[in-house]
Design brief:
alpha+beta, 1 helix, globular
Length: 71
Amino acid sequence: NGNGKRKYSFKYDINEIVLPIKKGTCVGKVNVMYKDKFVTSGELCVDEDVDKLNLFELYYSEFINLVCGNY
């Protein structure tokens, strides 16, 4: 629309994640909002096996948890 305002937003609800994770495992849910009103939701599932995180991935994951309020 050109005015810089986003009408859609996303709210994530991530489950506690324990590694390893197999491809196809659902690890949470996302809610799609339009102007702060619920539109739909869907499952968040991994698209590849995850064995372990390297140091960068670990810090990034912790940052995302902090920002999303998962603590």
